[in-house]
Amino acid sequence: xxxxxxxxxxxxxxxxxxxxxxxxxxxxxxxxxxxxxxxxxxxxxxxxxxxxxxxxxxxxxxxxxxxxxxxxxxxxxxxxxxxxxxxxxxxxxxxxxxxxxxxxxxxxxxxxxxxxxxxxxxxxxxxxxxxxxxxxxxxxxxxxxxxxxxxxxxxxxxxxxxxxxxxxxxxxxxxxxxxxxxxxxxxxxxxxxxxxxxxxxxxxxxxxxxxxxxxxxxxxxxxxxxxxxxxxxxxxxxxxxxxxxxxxxxxxxxxxxxxxxxxxxxxxxxxxxxxxxxxxxxxxxxxxxxxxxxxxxxxxxxxxxxxxxxxxxxxxxxxxxxxxxxxxxxxxxxxxxxxxxxxxxxxxxxxxxxxxxxxxxxxxxxxxxxxxxxxxxxxxxxx
Length: 383
Hints:
Blueprint: E1 7-11, H1 15-26, E2 30-34, H2 38-47, E3 52-53, H3 57-60, E4 66-69, H4 74-82, E5 97-100, H5 106-118, E6 125-128, E7 131-132, H6 134-140, E8 143-147, H7 151-156, H8 158-164, E9 165-172, H9 179-208, H10 212-219, H11 227-232, H12 247-254, E10 267-271, E11 274-278, H13 284-291, H14 297-311, H15 323-326, H16 333-336, H17 352-377
Parallel strand pairs: 1-2, 1-4, 2-3, 4-5, 5-6, 8-9
Antiparallel strand pairs: 7-8, 10-11
């Protein structure tokens, strides 16, 4: 008789989580979805009739072999796991495996382990396994996965981890719990610098008078290009419909925890007896850097852009809106000059080669910064 498929509770059906959960269903796993947002649950069960959904995290975890956590922040993860009435942990059987896919501070993973012990659940397996790649790769099962933890625990979850990852991008990180989050933290330094550089480069090209689509085509083939540049610039041409990734997604990792602003809207979501407060987790990278007394000046410059954007009320918008900071009097110039160079009869005032050189310089400085931080954290620079 064929063995029954592993039963997976999946918490967090957001932009990436929805694709990940759907891909697991399509790969033959038995998936029980949970999210605080009812429309996400409705869509999940409609589009995946062999799956099921739950009213609370605890209900989702009944008889689950694995719990995948893919919520946005540790502020959301803590009550999801440990709420007295609805938290998942009290519903987990011994030897169930928690796969922590959310991007959180390395220290938070150790905190989860301590809380599991305090709850008498020390036999629950825990894998630190943040992911990267965006919604399209999530749905295709081709994410980059940075898995760390006890070797036996990682091996136990290998089939699930392989299902979510590209064949060549399941990285097993040494150093135990927190190793995966350290590796993702370095990844986010590159992301933070490169996303900001996208807006600076395209804003400069527009201001110089270039047809911005022509500029993008040229720069995306040059030495200053990056994965972020190729993926984040196209939404700039139609910013009203851009839905790639909100400013707050990268800002939560980059913006310092002692910055003077706070996201104003803390809200509560009620589903039956379940209530979750969604707050603002700040500075995964910066807080870790300060704990290690390590300066990050290039990322610090990008941090100010994200801080300004969130303070201006743009946090929920696609991060392509950062171009507004470079074009305050003509915020839509990148879009309006897409396919149309400046109306000026003069040639562009700055060459594309100069903009490419700027991109190369910033990326090299960010690379040096990130690699030195790798060494400080003990992360394999070969990743």
